[in-house]
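Entry:
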Amino acid sequence: MIRVIPGPACVTLVIDRPERRNALTNAMYADLDLALQAAQKDPDCNAVILTGSDGHFTAGNDLSEFQSPRGDGDSPALAFLRRLAGIDVPVIAAVEGRAVGVGVTLLQHCDFVYAAQDALFSLPFVSLGLCPEGGSSLLMAQMAGPRRTAEWLLLGKPFTAGQACDSGFITAVTPPGQALERARQTAEELATQPGQALRGSKRLLRRAGRIALEQAFDAERDLFAERLRSDEAQAAFQRFFDKRK
């Protein structure tokens, strides 16, 4: 489930499915999308905090939903990512524990990312027979550089909060258990800014890359759907589920 916690000039969205390390389902993506829409419509909202429950950010997509037929057009995950990329309200991520797959790529669309020193990131798309998503085929190299991106996306090498910060992928590293508190401090600072000036300024910062990002979303969507139907991906999913038995 997604818990929505309102606060002064800020709303906190908590990915709350601890029994599966906060793995995201289609219904949860839809709830996140609706919560972002509500924040965008609220003129008094100057920040959105996105975090996970029980010591983890998110284990990424619930792979069981990848085994169901997918229709044409955007998946609920991609609809959420487009919303996250397009929202004018600043978004702050607080990462503890594991961040996997879309739990990493969504961070590219946050304005501030704070991660605990012992947080661990991974992008196992290729090993699952899939391809990068979330705009990562465009944005990750811009943020972290092409060599580091090749390690993360093509080899699927896990990386630490320190490595993510050194590469420019996240804003700062915090002591374990303190990422959310740091995010709240930033939200309090944003709350003191004139709201419409804040939103307009963010819109300008994102304007130049908007068309290229939408093209990346579209290209990733089409190849991802093709890869989901592949024998490689289905075999990788089966191995994943066999290990959990």
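The longest helix spans residues 210-228.
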